Amino acid sequence: MTAENRMRRPALTALAIVLSAASVFPVLWMATSSLKPRDTVTDGRLIPREVTFDNFVYVFTEVPFARYLWNSFFVSAVITVAALLFHSMAAYALARLRFPGREAIFLSIFATLLVSAPVVLIPLFLVARELGLLDSYAGLIIPAIFNAFGIFLLRQFYLAFPREIEEAAIVDGAGHWRIYWSIVLPMSRPILAALTVFFFLANWNAFVWPLVATSSEELTVVQLGIASFQTQYASSWNYILAAATVAALPMLALFFAFQRQIVESIKTSGLKS
C-alpha cells in the first residue's frame, strides 16, 4: 500500500461513517418518535423520555392497517415473482438467441428507461379502464410487471455466462427452454435475489398508480393508508410515525437479509455488451 493510499483510506472511512449516519438517522428518529406520547413527539429529542406502545395499538384498531399491509404484500409479491420470471426469459433470449431485430428490440426496451412514470400515467389509465382493470388486484399488478431495468440488468448478467456450459447441454440434447430452466435460472440466484429486493421495495412503496387505479378501501395499499391517515390526523404525528415504522420494518428486514446478494450481483453483472 502506497503512502497516498494510506492517507486516503482514513478519509474515505470517515466519509463513509458520516454518510451512513446521515442515512440511518431519519429511520432511527422515526422509530424512536413512534414510541413517544402525542405531547412529546415533536420535542426534538432522539431518546424518548416516556415510552408508549399505544400509538401502534391505535393504528391497528382505528383503521384496517393490517388489511393495507396485506394488500401491499400480496401485490408486491405477485409482481415480483411474475417480473422475475418474464424478465429472466426475455433477458436470456436477448442475450443468447439470434433472431432478426434483436438489438432493435433491446434498444427499444432500454429506451423506456428515459420515459418517466407521469408521462405514461394517463395513457395507462385509459388502457386499464378500457380493459376493465380499474379498482381490482389485476389493475394494480399487471401494469407494474414490466420493468426495463430488470431486463437490462439480467441481460448483462447472462452475457457474462460461460458459453461452454450451455454448449455442453446442447450436446446432451437440451433445448433452449431446458437450458434456461435447469441451468441458467438456478445460476441466476444472486442477481434474482437482488432484483427481488428492488422490485418488492419499489412496489411496496408505490403510491401514484394505486392512487389512480383504485378507489375501494379493500384495495388500499399501505402507502395510501398512511397518506389518508396523515390527512385524517394531520396533527397526530405519533400515529403517523407509528404507521410509517410498521410499513418500513419489512423492507429493512428484506434489505438486510439480501444485502450481500445485492452487492455481489452488481459486481458480477457489469456492463458487458
TrEMBL record:
It is a multi-pass membrane protein. GO terms for biological process: transmembrane transport. InterPro entries: MetI-like (IPR000515), MetI-like_sf (IPR035906). The chain crosses the membrane at residues 12-31, 68-92, 104-125, 137-158, 179-202, 237-258. GO terms for cellular component: plasma membrane. Its main location: membrane. Gene3D superfamilies: MetI-like (1.10.3720.10). It holds the Pfam family BPD_transp_1. It is found in: Cell membrane. Keywords: Cell membrane, Membrane, Transmembrane, Transmembrane helix, Transport. Residues 69-258 form the ABC transmembrane type-1 domain. Belongs to the binding-protein-dependent transport system permease family. This is ABC transporter permease subunit.
